């Protein structure tokens, strides 16, 4: 265990409830800026390609560089916030993040844009773990669950809200205005942080774990790159296997080093604690399924239903609003029923929502064929995420809350990448099998376009175009069903795990 002394309660815990609310608002605004930037540029991919003359691969690097930097640096920078002080690290992160977004909005080349996104990821990794650590060190125990519920709602719903606002800005203005939203949020958060956020930090007689930090960065970068490259280059391609090897080697080195170090970045033996393990696994699976659902829903709305990007984003809002409401309600449910029962109920609702969408989705049924399942899924995500987050923070001592928050955030990022890779691959395989059954041995440009994917199938012309489009839409729905049932299988295994190894009831 880490030998350290925590700050005194007078240094961090706030007695004034109005100031506590101000602190919560402040960190949620900062968190919203970080989360909105994860998804914001997704709606501007065509604009970026035209503006910079960039290939699709380069555009993906512009988008993914931010996520990779954020995920790789969360643990070391979260621990650094514990050491140096959470308030100064939060303020520094806001400055770096704001300046990087200004640079991104003014970028004149793809190289400059990638550099700006990399710097944004560094700033975001300074901000995100500190926001949750400030809550856990500032709020008294009887109010902490409710505050974490609000934080979780913002973390879960901020991405889709940012995507909606980004789509609106792209439609009515220009893609460069996408960077105005995070800059404005950062400016507000910076001013409020100076006024309301107290400082708290860990005092440790040991040096900062530099080796463990470097090993964690190597592990996260390698594994995230593997999950990103697998669906694009192929799971047996050299870049994918090389990334996997680097990630696994980094992970093994991290575990070996942390078990021997006197003051580890993350004491891996803590995963024997049921709350830490079950909370991490639940967030990994739930966020993975959520991210995978977004991957399959947008093509359904745009290619099957023919909706615009803005309308497609708006269609997700009912699910996300219900998820945010359930996240805020989850602490009350957990207080009555227990954290394990609440997590299990949330996972069960997630499985039920996925199964409902798998059974009732159809081309002719449209949006109403998937809306009930979306709503049930949103309820389940909200109920499961808040007690999972609290289980992680409760498993580590107060002076290690930056690490606890970072672990929570890394788990979310890994889950997102894993869910996109898994459900995206299942959807693609299901589509290929279904389209072959529907078009038979059709050769030529029309057959090639239909087999390549639903987006290219919609571009076909000629007398067969209408039949091919219908076949592609039905094949996509078939692939959708496969992806949803894969999600149900993941949730079923997770439910059994939570029931067996979920957090123990608190006295």
Give Rg in angstroms.
23 Å
Number of domains: 3
- Low-confidence runs of at least 5 consecutive residues: 1-11
Largest sheet: none
Distance between the termini: 24 Å
Note the overall shape.
globular
Protein architecture, described:
This protein starts with 8 loop residues before the first helix and ends in a 6-residue tail after the last helix. The chain has helices at residues 9-12, 17-39, 45-52, 56-84, 86-106, 110-138, 141-172, 180-196, 210-233, 238-260, 274-304, 309-315, 317-337, 339-360, 371-395, 401-439, 444-452, 454-457, 465-501. It is globular. By secondary structure, it is mostly helical. 55% of the residues are buried. The protein is built from 19 helices and no strands. It has 3 domains: 15-199, Growth Hormone, Chain: A, CATH 1.20.1250; 210-264, no CATH class; 269-506, MFS general substrate transporter like domains (Growth Hormone, Chain: A), CATH 1.20.1250. Residues 1-11 have low confidence and may be disordered. It is a multi-pass membrane protein. Residues 23-504 form the Major facilitator superfamily (MFS) profile domain. Its main location: membrane.
């Amino acid at each position: 265990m880490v030998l350290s002394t925590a700050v005194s309660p007078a240094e961090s815990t706030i007695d004034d409830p109005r100031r506590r609310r101000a602190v919560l608002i402040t960190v949620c605004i900062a968190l919203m800026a970080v989360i909105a930037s994860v998804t914001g540029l997704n709606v501007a991919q065509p604009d970026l390609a035209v503006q910079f003359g960039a290939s699709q691969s380069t555009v993906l690097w512009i988008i993914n560089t931010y996520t990779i930097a954020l995920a790789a640096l969360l643990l070391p920078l979260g621990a650094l916030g514990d050491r140096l002080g959470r308030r100064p690290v939060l303020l520094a992160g806001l400055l770096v993040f704001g300046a990087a977004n200004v640079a991104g909005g003014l970028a004149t080349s793809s190289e400059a844009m990638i550099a700006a996104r990399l710097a944004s990821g560094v700033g975001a990794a300074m901000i995100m773990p500190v926001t949750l650590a400030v809550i856990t060190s500032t709020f008294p125990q009887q109010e902490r669950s409710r505050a974490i519920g609000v934080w979780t709602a913002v973390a879960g719903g901020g991405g889709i809200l940012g995507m909606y606002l980004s789509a609106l800005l792209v439609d009515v203005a220009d893609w460069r205005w996408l960077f105005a939203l995070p800059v404005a949020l950062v400016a507000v958060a910076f001013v409020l942080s100076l006024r309301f956020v107290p400082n708290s930090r860990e005092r440790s007689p040991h040096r900062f774990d530099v080796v463990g930090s470097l090993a964690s960065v190597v592990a996260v970068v390698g594994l995230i790159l593997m999950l990103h490259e697998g669906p694009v280059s192929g799971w047996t391609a050299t870049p994918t296997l090389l990334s996997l090897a680097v990630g696994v080697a980094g992970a093994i080195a991290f575990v070996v080093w942390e078990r021997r170090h006197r003051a580890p970045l993350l004491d891996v033996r803590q995963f024997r604690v049921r709350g830490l393990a079950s909370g991490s696994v639940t967030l990994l699976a739930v966020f993975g399924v959520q991210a995978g659902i977004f991957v399959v829903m947008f093509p359904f709305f745009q290619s099957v239903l023919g909706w615009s990007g803005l309308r497609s984003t708006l269609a997700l809002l009912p699910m996300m609003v219900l998820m945010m409401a359930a996240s805020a309600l989850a602490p009350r449910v957990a207080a009555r029923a227990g954290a394990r029962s609440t997590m299990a109920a949330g996972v069960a609702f997630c499985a039920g929502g996925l199964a409902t969408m798998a059974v009732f989705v159809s081309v002719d049924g449209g949006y109403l064929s998937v809306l009930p399942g979306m709503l049930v899924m949103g309820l389940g995500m909200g109920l499961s995420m808040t007690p999972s987050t609290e289980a992680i923070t409760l498993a580590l001592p107060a002076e290690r809350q930056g690490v606890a928050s970072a672990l929570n955030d890394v788990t979310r990022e890994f889950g997102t990448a894993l869910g996109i890779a898994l459900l995206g691959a299942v959807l693609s395989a299901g589509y290929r099998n279904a389209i072959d059954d529907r078009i038979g041995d059709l050769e030529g440009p029309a057959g090639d376009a239909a087999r390549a994917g639903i987006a290219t199938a919609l571009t076909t012309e000629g007398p067969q175009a209408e039949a091919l489009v219908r076949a592609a839409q039905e094949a996509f729905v078939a692939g959708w069903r496969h992806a949803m049932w894969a999600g149900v299988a993941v949730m079923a295994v997770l439910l059994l795990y939570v029931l067996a190894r979920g957090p123990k009831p608190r006295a």
